[in-house]
Specification:
Blueprint (H helix, E strand, L loop, with lengths): L11 H16 L7 E7 L6 E11 L2 E5 L6 H9 L1 E6 L2 E9 L6 H15 L12 H7 L5 E6 L1
Antiparallel strand pairs: 1-2, 1-4, 2-3, 3-6, 4-5, 5-6
Length: about 150
Amino acid sequence: MTSDPRYVQPGWFTRNVYNRTVAGLTRLGISVSGSRVLVVRGRSSGLPRSVPVNLLTYAGDRYLVAPRGTTQWVRNLRAAGEGDLRLGRRSEHFRATEIDDAAKIEILRFYLKRWAWEVGAFFDGVGAKASDDELRRIAPDHPVFRITAG
């Protein structure tokens, strides 16, 4: 976790077309490459906030990775410590534990292997085949949460 958190805001197309399309399909029960709708309580308003995310399963655990950095959903999840993942009519409540930077390397590598086509631009040219040192360098810019049933 860095003192000057990185956040790449989504552009107009991502906000108004891509995210809405993926969220809409996911709400209908159609997962787009592992997509879920994350619902987490807003840290200021207390109101539920939702955003499409990629749910990663790696080495028997499940993770949420923030390719754009310290986004609003990351800040809300840090404050709430829990949320819901939705796919169609199914909703799963979970608890979130943020992963230390040193433990992120293989998780980030696997995430990039799976979704580089979608999110690779947010990883400063670092890909799944990058060295451990390169992944260690970018780890502070990409929060990762292990999620467990809650």
